[in-house]
Design a protein that fits this description.
Elements (H helix, E strand, L loop, with lengths): L3 H9 L4 H15 L9 H14 L3 H8 L5 H5 L9 H15 L6 H7 L5 H28 L27 H4 L3 E5 L7 H5 L3 H16 L6 H15 L2 H15 L4 H8 L7 H14 L7 H9 L4 H24 E5 L1
Antiparallel strand pairs: 1-2
Helix pairs in contact: 2-8, 2-11, 3-4, 3-6, 3-8, 6-8, 8-17, 11-17, 12-13, 12-15, 12-17, 13-14, 15-16, 15-17
Length: 336
């Protein structure tokens, strides 16, 4: 049987071999694991289909729908009453995870836990977060493959500016990116890895993919990868990832200003054309549905990034669509 991964393989061929292999392994771990006792393949596919739909990705949605007998019901919210109540609840949760993780709070997770095991809540959220990654990865790579001709885009992505926009002094990196700790909403008192171990197969595959994308021997400078992760996390509102990756960008770049400027004054305050393009393209991939255009890719090329740089950038921004959603919904970040 031809799987969703088989039919989508062409979009991923341009990725670095380590990232491509890790992405394929992650797809299998999330959508087609050997152990489906927590959530069967059909429910996983239904969740991924809803995520594809809210992201306006008809190609991915059609490929997923081909594996379901009830895809028309899943597509039409007015027909969800035809589905089991448990399936309706998981679809509603996962759709909100995809649309805006900031709107998924402790109360919703607590309500889900009255009807589902912690393992099931983590697994369903992983599927929604993974599909959010996948639609951005495929869409970004398609645009990178054929950016067409014409002018590059103009700067236009907005990240909410902080105090510096009002004329206040910029913080130091330590002030802007303080140490944070994460408290699980699923495992009382649990940490992030402990919570994700409730679906250990996905955790392993996801960790290997993140490492390949963020630290593998890629074309895009590692400091620029961290800057893209920071931009994505700021737009999504993930304070934990903002602190971690803002601090890491400063360490890797040796530049104490750019990450802080981005966090506190927004993209418009970044004077360097190349770094501004990296930030804006990461931001365009972050919103739901993604706003990335071929003109944005042409802007990257004009700023000096080659095709492999662009592929790395797309992978980073897509990865943090996944990570942010897990961190923001399954737990809460507080200052350490």
């Amino acid at each position: 049987m031809t799987t969703v991964t088989d039919r989508a393989a062409g979009a991923l061929t341009v990725l670095r071999p380590d990232v491509r292999e890790a992405a394929g392994n992650a797809d299998a771990a999330v959508l087609r694991p050997d152990d489906q006792s927590q959530l069967d393949a059909a429910d996983r596919t239904r969740i991924a289909l809803r995520v594809a739909l809210v992201n306006d990705d008809s190609d991915y949605a059609d490929r997923l729908a081909a594996e379901l007998d009830d895809d028309e019901v899943v597509r039409d919210v007015d027909r969800w009453a035809e589905l089991p109540e448990a399936t309706q609840a998981l679809l509603a949760h996962c759709e909100q995870v995809a649309l805006d993780p900031a709107d998924v709070g402790a109360e919703e997770i607590a309500e889900l836990l009255q009807h589902f095991s912690p393992d099931q809540v983590v697994t369903a959220t992983q599927v929604a977060a993974y599909a959010s990654f996948r639609v951005r990865l495929e869409g970004g790579l398609r645009l990178a493959a054929d950016p067409g001709d014409g002018p590059a885009s103009q700067p236009g992505i907005t990240i909410e500016a902080g105090a510096a926009a009002d004329g206040h002094r910029l913080s130091t990196p330590g002030e802007a990116f303080p140490s944070m700790r994460w408290v699980s909403r699923v495992v009382p008192g649990g940490e992030f890895v402990e919570t994700l171990k409730l679906d250990a197969g996905v955790l392993s595959a996801q960790t290997l993919l993140r490492e390949a994308i963020m630290t593998g021997r890629g074309a895009l400078d590692r400091a620029d990868r961290e800057l893209a992760a920071l931009a994505t996390s700021l737009i999504n509102g993930c304070g934990y990832c903002t602190a971690v990756h803002g601090k890491r960008q400063v360490e890797l770049s040796g530049d104490p200003l750019t990450a802080v400027v981005l966090a506190e004054a927004g993209p418009a305050a970044i004077a360097d054309e190349r770094l501004r393009a990296v930030v804006d393209v990461a931001g365009a991939l972050t919103v739901t549905p993604a706003a990335l255009t071929a003109a944005d890719v042409r802007r990257l090329r004009s700023a000096g990034l080659d095709a492999d740089d662009v592929h790395d950038l797309v992978a980073v921004a897509s990865m943090f669509a996944w990570d942010n959603r897990l961190i923001m919904t399954l737990g809460n970040a507080v200052r350490a």
